[in-house]
Design brief:
Number of strands: 28
Structural class: alpha/beta
Low-confidence stretches: 1-34, 480-489, 534-539, 672-697
Strand content: 15-25%
Radius of gyration: 36 Å
Shape: elongated
Distance between the termini: 69 Å
Length: about 800
């Protein structure tokens, strides 16, 4: 027999298991028995465990709990517990100090063993629990989540209380209690014990004890020092619980032992001890850990497989999309151009599906992190709306976005993932709306000196979603009903991904909808504020300008009303051409004519062109300048604008900055109705725009390292289109040889090449002083998390993901071929 020891457990680095727990409680693809499927095995153990099992965020929000814990805490379901309570809720612990103590212990060493506390259940009744918890860290050492097990020890605490209340009288206790109970005096002599304790010693050690025996004398010699130290701790006044393991010939036994000093009027007279055999619980916990490790390993293999598949799919996709782009830049017949454009659109659609699957796998494996960089909120929203404008306008939909004036615009966070969420929700709204409008509104929920919480709302007038379907809408691989995929397409992953991303931004996503009456999706997201605000741009002053807004869509009128009032203009609204003419003439008769009319192109009965003609034919109101709002499909050429006496055309959805610039250009001679202190009129002169930066020189020396012949042709074609030429290499070895023969300004480096890949090639270049130090731009088909970091860590300067876009390549070359970049 080996010396018993207190069991300790240190936190070990691990991946984020949030996705794993979610997957276990969700639906699995494929069949198989639990033994052949690690995830199913883990799920079975998790769901059927007798003890409560939980997982929480670092802040204490429940991520996952099993049915046993929900039942223990008095909740009807797992979902009710997750929504109704946090693990460190003030209302959970009866004694608030116990909550503070638990948090302190977890923060101190990341592990808590046998933490006992009385807690409130949902109905406000109380129970005693014993909790074992640990902190789980990711590979970088950052805290990912807490997990642990909870046992109801209410009955044991009742017996303890009964014992301590009667000082030395154990005989009042029922002898058939399963737990061992005994007490010793200050000389370690047995005072009282129950039959379970006596039987345990007989079974374990083959000894028989009686009152008055020195318990230490009955123990194996190599146990005694450990036992004496524990009794002495209790005799010194400490009350504590330890977990001990005893090794026997037929295997280990685990016990949870509670040591309690017996307090009398004259001091501590002994120790009362309660011991519970937890071998089955311990083995179940080990089985759960093993199953979890197996599931995590399976998840890792799945992620590696998907990363490899991503590379294998993106490499030929780069050829398909890139070559199609080059084809569209040549002279084609109308029919040929339509064929090529169809190939291009199909390629993009396939890439969207690939990206969705890859993103979902990254989230499920806990491998998706958010960036924290400076960005401008208006640019994120406007660029997203621009991407979807053509699709919306092709269906005759009004597409609009409004950022309320109180919303801070200069933020820090992950603009790419925010754009992805908004794009998913607006894209769905456009897809499922055949007439009417899709409107995005951004408002502020709260704001501090260094951060803000914003609310994003996407409202549409589409087909709507019935109540039953709303409950499963954010689950992976599901849509409102089976016919949705057949009619509208899509993977069913967009909303599931959006929900995960919103959670990473510390928010929630929800939907309000009625079948046939449209939908309203909304989510909150938390952002930091930039420490330095951008310098204000000098604008033309439109203060006091009288403007009439004419649009049959009420939402558009409301947005334009907010914009013009924010610019201190005086406005009025009209919903059709007839009403507009009436207001224009009434204002002219009153001596306060409108100086500007913003009119929509598409209006019933009298469209924008008809209204423009009517205004210019009426001499009393013809002095007003006209600005037309129109969709992409109705873009007007300059000669057409001139023929209708229209000063400017602004494309929908209307960007606030774009609209202001057009109005400022149109009203160049407008005199703001604002006087200086001397009483003279102050003229606002627009600032001179900065000269555009010169294009990148075609003399830049470029080496293209790419082993795939098709992708090599694509890259050379894109470079040629941008005015560049390049030498080529197909392996890292060839790159090193080429650098010895010629100095290059830029290397476009494929990361996966035979013999010597792009990472190692870059490291060798940076480690060889005799070689020139060109700018190295990675081109990789691996889109998994950390790829950009891996490239930069190898010594590369920039990163392009395949398929490589013409615009992205142009921007990267411009960044690294500029004089400023060369000087770095």
């Amino acid at each position: 027999m080996k010396n018993p020891a207190e069991k300790t457990q240190k936190p070990r680095p691990s991946g984020n298991g949030t996705g794993l727990f979610t997957a276990l409680r969700g639906k699995f693809g494929g069949g198989g028995s639990p033994k052949s499927n690690p995830e199913l095995m883990y799920r079975s153990i998790f769901e059927n465990a007798i003890e409560g099992i939980f997982q929480t965020t670092p802040s204490g929000q429940y991520l996952n709990v099993n049915p046993a814990l929900a039942k223990m805490y008095g909740y009807d379901s797992v979902e009710d517990l997750i929504e109704g309570l946090t693990a460190i809720d003030n209302q959970l612990y009866v004694d608030p100090n116990r909550r503070a103590e638990f948090i302190s212990l977890m923060q101190a060493n990341g592990v808590v063993r046998s933490f006992e506390s009385e807690i409130y259940r949902k109905d406000k009744s109380t129970i005693w629990i014993s909790e074992n918890a640990r902190a789980v860290f990711d590979s970088s050492g950052t805290l990912s989540y807490y997990e642990g097990m909870v046992e109801d020890i209410t009955e044991r605490k009742r017996l303890e209380a009964q014992l301590l209340a009667s000082e030395h009288n154990l005989s009042a206790l029922i002898n058939n209690v399963e737990d061992s109970i005994w007490s010793v005096d200050t000389a370690y002599r047995l005072m009282t014990f129950n039959s379970t304790f006596g039987q345990s010693l007989a079974d374990m050690l083959g000894v028989t004890v009686q009152a008055g025996d020195v318990i230490i004398d009955h123990l194996p010699e190599d146990w005694r020092e450990e036992d004496i130290s524990l009794y002495d701790r209790a005799l010194a006044g400490e009350r504590f619980v330890v977990e001990r393991c005893y090794q026997f010939e037929d295997g280990p036994c685990y016990y949870e032992i509670s040591y309690n000093p017996i307090q009398t009027e004259t001091g501590i007279s002994g120790v009362a001890v309660f011991s519970k055999n937890i071998t089955q619980r311990h083995l179940a916990h080990r089985e759960l850990e093993a199953a979890k490790l197996s599931a995590e390993t399976a998840n890792l293999m799945k992620s590696e497989f998907l990363a490899n598949m991503s590379h294998e799919i993106r490499t030929p996709m780069n050829g398909v999309i890139g070559m199609t782009d080059l084809l569209l830049m040549t002279d084609l017949t109308h029919e040929q151009r339509e064929f090529a454009r169809t190939v291009r659109i199909s390629g993009e659609s396939l890439l969207i599906v690939i990206n969705d699957i890859l993103d979902f796998s990254k989230i499920e494996a806990g491998k998706l992190d958010l960036e924290t960089i400076d960005f401008e909120l208006r640019e994120v929203i406007d660029s997203t709306m621009d991407l979807l404008a053509a699709q919306a306008h092709s269906k005759g939909l009004e597409l609009a976005a409004f950022i309320r004036p109180e919303v801070p615009l200069h933020l820090r966070g992950d603009p790419g993932r925010l754009r992805q969420i908004v794009n998913n929700l607006v894209g769905n709204a456009v897809k499922f709306t055949s007439q009417g409008e899709v409107v995005v509104t951004v408002s502020r929920i709260s704001e501090t000196s260094d951060g803000t919480i914003l609310r994003f709302e996407i409202r549409d007038t589409g087909i709507g979603i019935d109540e039953a379907a709303q409950g499963r809408l954010f689950e992976a691989f599901t849509q409102a009903d089976g016919s949705t995929t057949r009619k509208y397409g899509g993977t069913g992953l967009g909303l599931a991904i959006s929900k995960k991303l919103v959670a990473l931004m510390h928010g929630n996503i929800r939907v309000e909808s009625k079948l046939g009456e449209g939908s309203r999706f909304s989510f909150e997201a938390e952002f930091q504020k930039q420490t330095t605000t951008a310098k204000p741009v000098a604008h033309h002053d439109l203060t006091g300008l009288r403007v009439l807004i004419v649009d049959d869509n009420a939402t558009n009128r409301e947005i334009l009303d907010h914009h013009t009032r924010a610019w201190k203009m005086t406005n009025a609204n009209a919903s059709n051409g007839k009403e507009a003419l009436q207001k224009l003439r009434a204002a002219a008769d009153a001596g306060t004519p409108f100086e500007l009319v913003i009119l929509d192109m598409q209006m019933p009965e009298m469209d924008g062109l008809m209204l423009a003609k009517a205004i210019k034919e009426d001499s009393t109101i013809s002095g007003a300048k006209l600005v037309m709002l129109t969709s992409l499909g109705n873009h007007m050429e300059p000669n057409e604008l001139k023929a209708h006496c229209i000063e400017a055309c602004v494309l929908k959805p209307v960007k606030q900055s774009r609209l202001f610039d057009r109005l400022a250009e149109v009203m160049t001679n407008h005199v703001p109705r604002k006087l200086t202190q001397s009483g003279t009129v102050r003229l606002a002169v627009p600032s001179k725009p900065e000269a555009p930066s010169p294009p990148a020189s075609a003399k830049v020396s470029i080496l293209l390292a790419e082993d795939n012949r098709i992708n090599q042709k694509v890259a050379l074609g894109l470079l040629q289109n941008l005015g560049y030429t390049a030498d080529t290499a197909i392996t890292g070895i060839e790159v090193l040889v080429a650098l010895k023969e010629k100095e290059y300004d830029i290397i476009l480096m494929d990361c996966q090449m035979p013999e010597l890949d792009g990472y190692e090639t870059t490291r060798r270049i940076r480690a060889t002083p005799s070689l020139a130090s060109p700018r190295i731009i990675a081109m990789t088909a691996n889109a998994m998390r950390g790829e950009s970091d891996k490239c930069l860590a190898a010594g590369m300067d920039d990163y392009l993901s395949k398929p490589v876009r013409l615009e992205a390549l142009r921007d990267a070359l411009a960044r690294w071929s500029s004089p400023a970049a060369a000087a770095k």
